[in-house]
Amino acid sequence: MRPSQWLVQCLLAAVSFQSSTTAATKQPSQYPLASSHGPDKAYSNHKLLLALHRRLVEIESITGNEYAVGVFLEDFLLQHNYTVERQYVGTQPGSFSTLKGEKKPRFNLLAYPGSTRNTRVLLSSHIDTVPPFWPYEIRNDDEIWGRGSVDDKACVATQFMAVEELRAAGEIGPADVALLFVVGEETGGDGMRAANELNIKWESVIFGEPTELKLAAGHKGLIQFDIKAQGKAAHSGYPWLGENANSMIIPALAELLKTELPSSEKYGNSTLNIGLMGGGVAANVIPESANARLAVRIAEGSPEKTSKIVVDTVLRVDDRLQITSMGPAYGPVYIDSDVKVEACIIQYREASFASTIADSFAPGFEKITVNYGTDIPNLKGDHKRYLYGPGSILVAHSDHEHLTIGNLTAAVEGYKKLVLHALK
Prior knowledge:
The protein contains 9 helices and 22 strands. It has 424 residues and is α+β, with helices and mostly antiparallel strands. It starts with a helix and ends with a helix.
């Protein structure tokens, strides 16, 4: 059977699946993946996998608007004989804003086969996405495009399928594995922080994020800052009558871009991104106020260490500037990768920090470190922490977010290996 014929069959199944669920619910490491993984015909449940993945991607779920995808996923899990718990996050049902129709409630979903919620292993992914929404689309026979097709709905679909495969094969019992799908990961992790209130301790948690089917050994830390400048408005023809807030903040930002931040052999250089800037109201008005928001991905040391460097640099340029840190901050995050096998090569984005080490990881897995943040530090506990998933982070958050069908099916097998290892 040609790949295109195979895909048509799968999409027909997806259409049928969508109709039924709608009625019920109303190259080098970290470079974009090529279409080298063709359809995995040996994987028996590819139709259900593709149908689930398609429906998840078709439902817009930009952070704050996760209600519809949560309702769909809850019903889907119930249909497959899971016990499902809603955990509301933020706006509650029946509140003033929900009764007025301004907001719909947001909730995490904890799902487990049987009646035992305190399972040994947890698989977790997030159901929210960044804006804007991009519709589901098939290209080149085996590429799936759309917002969330990689980050993070590919992980949601493949984690579910991995558990289903293991259950069907009798390799896990009802008290072994649970699924946790959370909201809010893209804007600070309020969903995962709320999950701490479930009061469950797991032996191992397998987090889903795009790692190109590699096992992550760690990721950089994060700290964010807000910088404000207060000047005095005046006519631009008489600038000496005012105080230009833009002229206050721009030199500080320029100096930050030249500042050396902590680095490490494992994670490379810390990186600074000036993500937002604003100031002034018109070209012929001296700007009264200006602001900038920036984020630092921390490669070494504590967030306090990086914060001191950033704050000292800004105030040294102009001590009238106000700088404050925003949101949760954390240093580099260690992630377990303790499945025994031979020596491996850790691959970094920066060749100057590449090194070969003797370490351990699962058969069929390569190891990688990543520069993005995850929900891992938001879930408290002494559990083992694994990070794995299909797709590349380098196409996530973009207008060309996509992955191959073969990448999805391979991830199911990868999650199964990790679950069985965690249960040993």
